[in-house]
């Protein structure tokens, strides 16, 4: 077995050159965070304590100190008792009087009972107080982190660490902090108290022997001083790489349809694994000093005992020590003090983990915001007129400082008037909105509102006077009512719910949303789900408009506000916007010019400059740039009727469909057959079953595991061996002879050999155990991600499986598994071997006393331990769900930061997040109370067993049934076994979390993807021609079996033809695309290509046949090149990428970027305008050279000129391929070979553009609604 098997956990990992390249690209900020990730961050955690937390920690510290001091006190009693026993056995105190002997023993027995009661109480107090305080402090840090995150300027969220990793930060790092300041901190203080108390007792009883034995301490301290900072530094690097992996995972989960459509699993998984391998390599670097630290600790502990006995007997021989009890008190005290260092070591690991996690959070908490939305600073006038002036504005995005968007731009936007901005995509229109919202700061110049620079206003006040409807509408998890009510400001938010509902309904009526909302299963109380994925684009847009107008804002910013609406809905909503815009300052950005022709002024922009300005009629007369745009958008039809009339005749259509498309996400989902398996999250296997399964899977690590098992046998077996050696050494003190000196020297030498053996064994456990743990954790982290990402869309439709919740679990589960599969698993094995071997030894050496002590103590120990484990497991399961919910909330806030900021929802989200954390903290109190009692009992029961052993042992010795030697072997074996049991149950928290995590992995394995490549379809792709036949297609979402979304669809698409589907929002168009992409399989009917049913094909080969361009384009963190090549199974040449850019009309703007194809897109593509993102997405679709192209509103985000060019490119590309398009903008599909009109999930009209016009039906009316001006007919 080679070392490579441990170091590289799996074939196919990224090669070392790639890893090295990634390492070389580390940012300076990351290195600075590493430098700041020292132990000082740990102490800083406690600055987040309030007075009650401080009181709890003081109480815990005092109790821990007292608990730690109890054990050294035991050595005094034990030493005196040993003296009494040896004097009795040798007859040095006179003839044996059984009754007097037993009476004298009772005194010691009572002392042990007192110690039991005292340690039980104070250990309970220490554990309870520290755990409660930790929950509270961690809650405060989590709250503060999210608050400071939401305080940051929007520019911060364009960077990867400012976005997707927030779920990882608040869960994983929060959990690590909690572990480092809770029970493990109490154990650490207790161990330190035991260390000092032991030395004090030893010094008091025999200072010379104590000082000689304490000579081992400097070596231990030196290792700790060097090892702890190194461990903290490595842990900070590991956390950073895992955070980067979490960003990627969150992006992939939130855009899972894009990942599936492009079959990009392998590429995304490989990139994710690259980060895991980087973290793995850093974790492996910990092995050396973890192993060396453990080895030195245990060598010093056993070596110190050997030294103490060797020197102790010499001093006894020379009369410097009076009796064996004194030697035993000193030896046990020093031994206990050194063994406390072995307890300190793993707790220091938790502290360094907490320190590294805190450094990550503090890097955000310490960051000063340039535009703090929660700040109270700034002017807050009582009124706002809305007069806006842009004066000499120059601006470049911070990520691209060399690329100037504006240079000396000046615009006047008069109060109470409507100003429209039109122009090519990327000309700076949306940037103006970002500057007005103060998402970014100008490089020079100023923006003035009512004569005051907007930077002088209070930011929250400024944004509350402005309402924005964005090109890509964002709704949040919650009900329709809650989403629309988010637009309320000031005192409106305090109105009774009935009045708020009236305002919500009024706003929805204005935005043409009321009717379809009423048709939803729960009306305004219907849950919309993550990113409102169950609603159509038009439905989302109308709710977003309602949210923006509900507060009757003074300034309206409409960034393509109606781009996602069908013509009828657009006409109605535009009419509503025209009405609500009266006496408001309205800035409209539009590519669809029908929405701006009523504007008081229209500003035409190009490359950041104003090229034309005037009213619609003025600009038409100029016959310039604007006039040309108008002519391009005109649809030929000579018979017009008012758009509002058209809508009034047909508006009912959308209402009926709403019930089909929307998802009522509620508890009933769990009762649907086949859906409950997506919600459980566990298979309820025991810890031992989970552990056995995990070990069986590590076939290539078996030799290493065998070596570790052998090391554990040596370490665990050392404890009962010590019992024998101790008893032998004690008896040596009863003899004064040269032979006794030789015997003492021999047994001291044996102890020294024990020290060397344990040093080597613990070196193996630390070094190899860490490497094995890192490897196993890497594997399961990889497995979880690749299993989740390959699951069907049904899985991601569940509210429990939001992208934030999944990212949270992706961090929590592997970290919990590492607690089990790393050193802890092998330390647990050491404890198990210790308990079993010590119990066997005690029974074999003296069955009467052994059976009594073992079977009196073990049931109580096991009962308390398992009860604690059960309560902790239940709590962890509930907490996992709640933390996933809170993480999803935090992720949603950060990934939708622009919407959240524009609506000034920071406080609202923080209140929801804080309430979620408060529930978790409250629910933890009962569990902490129960588990603390179990832990306290396991830590104190040893004293009660000692009392029982002394009492019953004295009876057996008095009766002559037991020798002193037998008694000490049995008694010491039970003591060592009890200590092992206490250590074992001290690991229960890690064990229960690991059991929960392992069950989650095993549960994921039970989930099978129905749409996957398997033996039955492998290699089967589309063959023959590309004729697409859709026959009798019906579809119901599995979680909504009563809602028929598509009903009897029949479509024939001939090869190379261009087919379009149109219809009102919510009619099922996008669902049809989802079925064509095979995100879902039909409920009945079939889809065939080339005569073959697509569900019989390999989905990989089938999807390679297609390309999809969605309405809301998804870009990922990475370069333009990476995004265009996304999903390709090979690395394309730059020439191929640029050719795809030319086809998508993206070549010019990509070439103008500072770094060209290497320009980073930013998180979710935020570095580009909507139109630029869409063109990159189109280039990504075309580079695959697909035979079928699916366009779901592919040009909706483009300006008129770009749309025309891209449409020409798509038309040209369509000559050799089949194209199926969904469109609201009918100019893009008028040349289609066939157009199908969907109404209520059915096809009601079909034909060519001219044929449908002649029918003078619904399609004809849609065309009329989009005509711009009669004068252009």
TrEMBL record:
Localization (cell): Membrane
Membrane spanning residue stretches: 54-78, 108-126, 185-205, 211-233, 288-309, 701-726, 746-769, 825-844, 850-871, 924-952, 964-988
ABC transporter domain mapped to chain residues: 388-632, 1028-1265
Stretch list, region Disordered: 1-33
Protein family membership: Belongs to the ABC transporter superfamily. ABCB family. Multidrug resistance exporter (TC 3.A.1.201) subfamily.
PANTHER family tied to this protein: ATP-DEPENDENT PERMEASE MDL1, MITOCHONDRIAL, ATP-DEPENDENT TRANSLOCASE ABCB1-LIKE
Protein name: P-loop containing nucleoside triphosphate hydrolase protein
Organism: Conoideocrella luteorostrata
């Amino acid at each position: 077995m080679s070392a490579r098997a441990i170091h590289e956990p799996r074939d196919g990992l990224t090669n070392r050159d790639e890893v090295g390249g990634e390492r070389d690209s580390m940012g300076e900020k990351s290195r600075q965070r590493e430098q700041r990730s020292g132990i000082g961050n740990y102490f800083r955690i406690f600055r987040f304590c309030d007075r009650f937390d401080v009181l709890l920690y003081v109480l815990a510290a005092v109790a821990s100190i007292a608990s730690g001091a109890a054990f050294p006190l035991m050595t005094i009693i034990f030493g005196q008792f040993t003296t009494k026993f040896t004097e009795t056995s040798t007859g040095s105190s006179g003839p044996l009087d059984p009754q007097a002997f037993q009476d004298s023993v009772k005194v010691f027995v009572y002392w042990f009972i007192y110690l039991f009661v005292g340690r039980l109480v104070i250990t309970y107090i220490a554990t309870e107080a520290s755990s409660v305080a930790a929950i509270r402090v961690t809650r405060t840090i989590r709250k503060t982190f999210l608050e400071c995150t939401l305080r940051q300027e929007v520019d911060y969220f364009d960077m990867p660490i400012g976005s997707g990793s927030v779920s990882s930060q608040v869960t994983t790092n929060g959990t690590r902090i909690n572990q480092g300041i809770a029970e493990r901190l109490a154990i650490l203080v207790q161990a330190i108290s035991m260390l000092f108390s032991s030395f004090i007792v030893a010094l008091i009883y025999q200072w010379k022997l104590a000082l000689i034995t304490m000579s081992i301490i400097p070596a231990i301290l030196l290792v700790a001083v060097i090892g702890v900072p190194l461990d903290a530094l490595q842990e900070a690097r590991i956390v950073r790489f895992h955070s980067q992996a979490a960003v990627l995972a969150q992006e992939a989960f939130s855009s899972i349809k894009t990942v599936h459509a492009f079959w990009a699993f392998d590429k995304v998984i490989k990139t994710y694994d690259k980060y895991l391998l980087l973290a793995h390599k850093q974790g492996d670097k910990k092995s050396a000093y973890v192993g060396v630290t453990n080895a030195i600790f245990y060598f010093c502990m056993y070596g110190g005992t050997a030294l103490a006995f060797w020197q102790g007997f010499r001093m006894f021989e020379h009369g410097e020590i009076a009796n064996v009890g004194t030697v035993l008190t000193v030896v046990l005290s020093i031994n206990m003090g050194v063994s406390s260092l072995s307890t300190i070591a793993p707790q220091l690991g938790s502290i360094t983990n907490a320190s590294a996690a805190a450094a990550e959070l503090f890097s955000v908490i310490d960051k000063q915001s340039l535009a703090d939305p929660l700040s109270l600073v700034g002017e807050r006038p009582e009124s706002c007129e809305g007069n806006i002036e842009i004066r000499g504005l120059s601006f470049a995005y911070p990520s691209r400082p060399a690329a100037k968007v504006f240079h000396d731009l000046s615009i006047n936007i008069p109060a109470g008037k409507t100003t429209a901005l039109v122009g090519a995509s990327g000309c700076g229109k949306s940037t103006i909105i970002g500057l007005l919202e103060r998402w970014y700061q100008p490089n020079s110049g100023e923006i003035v509102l009512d004569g005051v620079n907007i930077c002088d206003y209070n930011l929250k006040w400024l944004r509350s006077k402005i309402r924005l409807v964005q090109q890509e509408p964002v709704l949040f998890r919650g009900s329709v009512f809650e989403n629309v009510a988010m637009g309320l400001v000031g005192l409106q938010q305090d109105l009774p719910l009935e009045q708020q509902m009236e305002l919500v309904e009024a706003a929805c009526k204005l935005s043409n949303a009321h009717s379809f909302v009423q048709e939803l299963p729960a009306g305004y109380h219907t849950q919309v789900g993550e990113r409102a994925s169950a609603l159509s684009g038009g439905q989302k847009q109308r709710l977003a408009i309602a949210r923006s107008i509900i507060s009757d804002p003074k300034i309206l910013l409409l960034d393509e506000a109606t781009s996602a609406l069908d013509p009828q809905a657009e006409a109605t909503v535009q009419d509503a916007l025209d009405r609500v815009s009266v006496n408001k300052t309205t800035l409209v950005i539009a590519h669809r010019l029908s929405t701006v022709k009523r504007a008081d002024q229209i500003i035409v922009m190009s490359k950041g400059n104003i090229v034309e300005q005037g009213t619609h009629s003025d600009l038409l007369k100029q016959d310039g740039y604007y006039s040309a745009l108008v002519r391009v958008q005109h649809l030929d039809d000579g018979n017009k009727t008012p758009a509002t009339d058209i809508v009034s005749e047909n508006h009912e259509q959308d209402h009926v469909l709403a019930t089909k498309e929307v998802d009522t996400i509620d508890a009933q989902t769990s009762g649907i057959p086949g859906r409950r398996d997506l919600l459980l999250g566990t298979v309820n296997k025991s810890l031992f079953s989970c552990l056995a399964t995990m070990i069986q899977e590590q076939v290539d690590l078996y030799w290493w595991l065998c070596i570790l098992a052998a090391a554990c046998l040596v370490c665990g077996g050392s404890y009962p061996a010590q019992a024998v050696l101790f008893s032998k050494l004690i008896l040596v003190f009863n003899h004064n002879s040269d032979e006794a000196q030789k015997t003492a020297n021999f047994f001291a030498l044996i102890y020294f050999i024990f020290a060397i053996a344990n040093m080597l064994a613990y070196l193996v456990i630390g070094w190899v155990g860490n490497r094995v743990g890192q490897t196993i954790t890497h594997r399961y982290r990889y497995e979880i991600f690749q299993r989740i990402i390959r699951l069907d869309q049904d899985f991601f439709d569940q509210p429990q499986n939001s992208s934030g919740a999944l990212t949270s679990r992706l961090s929590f589960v592997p970290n919990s598994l590492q607690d089990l599969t790393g050193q802890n698993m092998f330390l647990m094995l050491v404890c198990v071997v210790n308990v079993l071997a010590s119990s066997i030894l005690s029974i074999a050496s003296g069955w009467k006393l052994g059976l009594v002590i073992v079977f009196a103590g073990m049931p109580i120990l096991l009962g308390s331990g398992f009860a604690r484990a059960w309560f902790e497991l239940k709590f962890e399961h509930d907490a996992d769900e709640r933390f996933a919910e809170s993480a999803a909330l935090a992720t949603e806030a950060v990934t939708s930061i622009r919407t959240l900021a524009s609506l000034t929802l920071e406080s609202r989200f923080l209140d929801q997040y804080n309430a979620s954390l408060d529930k978790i903290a409250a629910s933890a109190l009962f569990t902490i109370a129960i588990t603390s009692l179990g832990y306290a009992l396991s830590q104190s029961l040893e004293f009660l067993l000692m009392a029982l052993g002394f009492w019953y042992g004295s009876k057996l010795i008095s009766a002559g049934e037991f020798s002193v030697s037998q008694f000490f072997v049995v008694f010491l074996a039970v003591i060592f076994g009890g200590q092992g049991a206490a250590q074992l149950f001290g690991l229960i928290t890690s064990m229960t979390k690991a059991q929960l995590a392992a069950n989650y992995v095993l549960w994921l394995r039970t989930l099978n993807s129905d749409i996957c490549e398997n033996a039955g379809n492998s290699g089967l792709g589309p063959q023959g021609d590309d004729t697409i036949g859709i026959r009798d297609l019906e579809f119901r979402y599995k979680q909504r079996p009563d809602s028929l979304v598509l009903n009897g669809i029949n479509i024939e698409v001939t090869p190379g033809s261009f087919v379009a589907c149109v219809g009102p929002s919510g009619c099922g168009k996008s669902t049809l695309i989802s079925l064509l992409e095979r995100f879902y399989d039909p409920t009945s009917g079939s889809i065939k290509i080339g005569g073959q049913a697509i569900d019989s094909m390999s989905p990989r080969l089938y999807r390679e046949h297609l390309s999809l361009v969605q309405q809301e384009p998804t870009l990922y963190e990475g370069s333009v090149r990476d995004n265009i090549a996304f999903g390709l199974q090979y690395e394309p040449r730059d020439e191929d990428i640029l050719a795809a850019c030319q086809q998508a009309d993206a070549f010019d703007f990509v070439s103008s970027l500072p770094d060209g194809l290497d320009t980073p897109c930013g998180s979710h593509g935020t570095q580009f305008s909507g139109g630029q993102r869409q063109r990159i997405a189109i280039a990504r679709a075309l580079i695959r050279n697909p035979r079928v192209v699916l366009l779901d509103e592919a040009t909706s985000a483009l300006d008129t000129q770009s749309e025309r060019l891209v449409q020409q490119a798509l038309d040209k590309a369509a000559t050799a391929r089949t194209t199926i398009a969904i469109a609201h903008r009918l100019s893009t599909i008028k040349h289609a070979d066939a157009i199908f009109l969907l109404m209520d999930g059915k096809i009601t009209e079909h034909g060519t553009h001219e044929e449908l016009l002649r029918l003078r039906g619904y399609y004809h009316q849609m065309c009329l609604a989009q005509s711009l001006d009669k004068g252009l007919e």
